Amino acid sequence: MGADGSRGQEVVSSRERQEIQYDRRKTDRSRASVNDRPGQDRHELPATIPVGEYHAYFHRNRHRANERPLRRVGGRDLDWLSTDQWLAYEVNVPEAGNYDLSLRVAAESAFGGGDVGVVLNDDPLARLSFDPTGGWYSWEEVGEEIELPAGEHTIRLVVFDGGWKLEALTIE
Q1: 3-class DSSP assignment, residue 41
Q2: In CATH, what number is assigned to the domain containing residue 82?
Q3: CB 156 within 8 A of CB 22
Q4: What's the confidence (pLDDT) of residue 40?
Q5: Are 102 and 170 in contact (CB under 8 A)?
Q6: Is position 1 within any domain?
Q7: Is 114 part of any domain?
Q8: What pLDDT score was predicted for residue 17?
Q9: Can you say how many angstroms the Cα of residue 113 is from the centroid of all Cα atoms in its chain?
Q10: How far apart are CA 39 and CA 48, in angstroms?
Q11: Longest pairwise C-alpha distance within the chain
């Protein structure tokens, strides 16, 4: 057990000194609750990536019922994201520099907004919080400028406060 009383949890700080805490045990791919999609292509940036084009995900309650955590609605991938879920996307960054990251989100007022961490490989980049958007299909963009090094990387979205929908992430 760590000095703060947690087991296997790591707290990392972003450049804005905001903490992103996640359970490193959930990133162990040998666990049944972590699911990979090995055939998924690496995303070349800049790009808009539909939420369902992830390379791996963790969701505590869906791993036995369904190998794919997301459903298709109207030809688009989207679904309700829950607390402690994460989605990983493999990307190729052609040139180091600052990029605009935005998430297309929807959140019903009765469920509240959301809180999500953005991690590059295992280093935190940003933590985004947002208020309800007014409905499950009232889409809004939430984002921040992030700095990315050139090369192949994994971007992980870590859901800290769930109960909202994600349609896509855009990095340009």
Answers
A1: coil
A2: 2.60.120.260
A3: no
A4: 75
A5: yes
A6: no
A7: yes
A8: 44
A9: 15
A10: 19
A11: 48
Q: Token digits for 146? A: 């992030």
pLDDT tens figures, 125-146: 999 999 999 998 899 999 999 9
Which domain, by its residues, includes 101?
9-171
Task: Identify whether the C-beta of residue 104 lies closer than 8 Å to the C-beta of residue 139.
Answer: yes
Answer whether residue 2 is part of any domain: no
Tokens of 68: 């794919």
Sequence-separated (6 or more) residues with CB below 8 Å from residue 91: 42, 43, 44, 45, 47, 152, 153, 154, 155, 171
Count of structural domains within the chain: 1
| Residue 33 DSSP class | T
- Coarse DSSP helix, strand, coil percentages of the chain, rounded to the nearest 5 percent: 5, 55, 40
Q: Distance between CA atoms of 105 and 114, rounded to whole angstroms?
A: 9
The residue assigned the tokens 């050139």 is 150
CA–CA separation, 139 vs 142, rounded Å? Answer: 10
Cα–Cα dist 136/127, whole Å: 22
Residue 111: phi and psi, rounded to 5, are -100, -10
- DSSP 3-state assignment of 151? strand
The average pLDDT across 89-97 equals 97
Tokens representing 117 are 């961490």
pTM given for the model: 0.77
Give the whole-angstrom CA distance, residue 92 versus residue 121.
12
